[in-house]
């Protein structure tokens, strides 16, 4: 008889195992899927254990909060990647380009210009994903589906390195159709990265082609 598998003893091991299982079901190489630990609202003391367990890729949704927490953590541990997953105001573009390695929330032409200016000034190219308002929700951030081709065109013209698409589906409904739509849009546009899936639905996202999953509460516990 087979030995029972050792149960994962940390949330990080559990989430990693669940990603691998979903990838295997979908016939995908788990190495194609990168886990972004979303650390918003959590202080450095809560982040340090994850770094000690080997996690290197983290996400924040606010520039100012990230500026307060991350420079010290990054200085202590080489190889940390920091991604911005929240709405970005144009007047924070300069700070965002200086601190983050990837921006998942490119959603409008004015931000294309602000990011291009900041990258030119700093001589630093930061990968961007276009956030798509995949559910067509009035109150939600992200570029309307119909406006994505024009935004991608503007980004290419401005020489922004756009590598993929990102979405946050509507709350409380089955997310799979939205993930499938985002993956198809990325395919159609020849973009390799799809940032989709959070604590409640990352396995579904993996099965539908996510290359980045953004997981907060399943790793850190509930936010206040
Ligand atoms: C907070 C946040 C997440 C993580 O959410 P959890 O449900 O805690 O996993 C993912 N993506 C974005 C854009 C977020 O703001």
TrEMBL record:
Transmembrane segments: none annotated. The keyword rRNA processing does not apply. The keyword Protease does not apply. CDD domains: PLPDE_III_YBL036c_like. SUPFAM superfamilies: PLP-binding barrel (SSF51419). Signal peptide: none annotated. The modification N6-(pyridoxal phosphate)lysine is found at residue 40. Keywords: Pyridoxal phosphate. Residues 17-223 form the Alanine racemase N-terminal domain. Pyridoxal 5'-phosphate (PLP)-binding protein, which is involved in PLP homeostasis. Belongs to the pyridoxal phosphate-binding protein YggS/PROSC family. HAMAP family: PLP_homeostasis. This is Pyridoxal phosphate homeostasis protein. It comes from Novosphingobium album (ex Liu et al. 2023).
